[in-house]
Design goal:
365 residues; mainly beta; Immunoglobulin-like; five-stranded antiparallel beta sheet; globular
């Protein structure tokens, strides 16, 4: 079939030492340095360099190094397609297995992630599935996401709707304790974390055609919660309540204040505010351990910002005042922060975020 592309693949492009990878685009919005006919380059990014020897002993969330002379290229193309490189070099897709080298450019295939595996993360001793933050990568540092997560998540402000986490170039995602993931044969490198109280896990697995499941046990190293401590984040935006519940459980954060607000003409989380629901309580079907409450962040760019937490009744309005960058062009300064705070207290809560919690840490902003 002359028009049928083959399944998505990855290749490693090594460029001459005097060159380095750049993201510049040409007039047709294609990458200047690497293109393909009869197909599409999906992404091209510098190879991430993780420690492979002693992976299990390195610290969690260790940001990888990068090399700008090695580029991971993800693509989909017809079997007769050719890569076209910056100097005019052409390399046929069908020749990649030969580790083709031309004019100092080397292009070689990366092992296909085509072995579907079920991952379960359980509490040691109980076999109970636990929400966690998960990172997996292959031998060449390529990020391996579960099939229902983004392969190339967007780090831009409010431009990623998947429950992902960015620590520089180190990518992770939040899962409920269960994940379906496509892995390459050979070594893969896994990292699992769950806040400060649970011992982080870093493991190396050898994936074979017989590998159908991976089971990882995690256990607590600290017991602050059992001693009465409660962790909270008073300032979270842009998540749905359900996603906030997943992320707070995976980070070990007991209370999340998800704040509706205004950003010029954009209103965020306003449909999630009802003035009475605390997600995760036993009354709401949860276990009462992890809670999400929608409040508001009311803002003015000169007078300041204030978080109004846990109040009941109608939303305290206006959300923002005084024009850009907080409210819309032409909006007057028609309310002061003290007025917002007084209204919040009248509606049953406090605008002081530290008055009802014992500790806090940031989940996601």
């Amino acid at each position: 079939m002359p028009f049928r592309w083959e399944k998505r693949k990855k290749a490693l492009l090594r460029v001459p030492p005097e060159l380095s990878f750049g993201p510049a685009l040409d007039d047709d919005s294609c990458l200047n340095q690497v293109q393909i006919d009869l197909g599409q380059v999906i992404s091209a990014s510098p190879r991430l360099i993780y420690p492979t020897e002693g992976w299990e002993k390195t610290r969690q969330s260790l940001e990888p190094g990068t090399t700008f002379n090695e580029v991971v290229v993800e693509y989909a193309a017809h079997e007769d397609a050719e890569f076209r490189l910056a100097d005019g070099t052409r390399i046929a897709v069908r020749d990649l297995e030969k580790h083709t080298s031309q004019n100092g450019f080397i292009l070689e295939p990366i092992a296909a992630a085509d072995q579907r595996v079920i991952l379960r993360v359980v509490e040691a001793g109980t076999n109970k599935l636990l929400p966690v933050k998960l990172h997996v990568h292959g031998k060449l540092g390529e990020y391996l996401a579960p099939v229902d997560r983004m392969r190339n998540p967007n780090p831009g402000w409010f431009e990623n709707y998947s429950p992902d986490f960015f620590h520089g170039n180190h990518l992770s995602t939040y899962i409920s304790g269960f994940a379906m993931i496509d892995l390459p044969l050979g070594e893969i490198f896994l990292e699992i974390t769950k806040g400060f109280e649970v011992k982080p896990v870093r493991k190396t697995f050898e994936i074979a055609r017989e590998t159908k499941q991976i089971r990882v046990e995690i256990e607590k190293a600290l017991h602050w919660r059992e001693k009465g401590w409660v962790t909270a984040d008073t300032h979270v935006h842009f998540l749905s309540p359900a996603t906030a519940m997943l992320e707070c459980a995976a980070e070990g954060v007991n209370v999340i204040n998800l704040l509706a607000s205004q950003w010029g003409e954009l209103m965020s989380n306003v449909g999630d505010f009802d003035g009475h629901t605390t997600f995760g309580t036993k009354a709401a079907g949860g276990d009462g351990e992890f809670l999400v409450r929608v409040g508001t962040e009311n803002r003015q760019h000169v007078l300041g910002h204030i978080s109004l937490l846990g109040y009941s009744g109608n939303m305290i309005l206006p959300l923002c005042s005084g024009g850009p960058d907080e409210s819309a062009i032409g909006d007057p300064v028609d309310v002061l922060l003290t007025e917002w705070a007084r209204q919040c207290r009248k509606q049953g809560w406090s605008s002081c975020p530290t008055s009802r919690i014992l500790g806090w840490r940031t989940l996601r902003r």
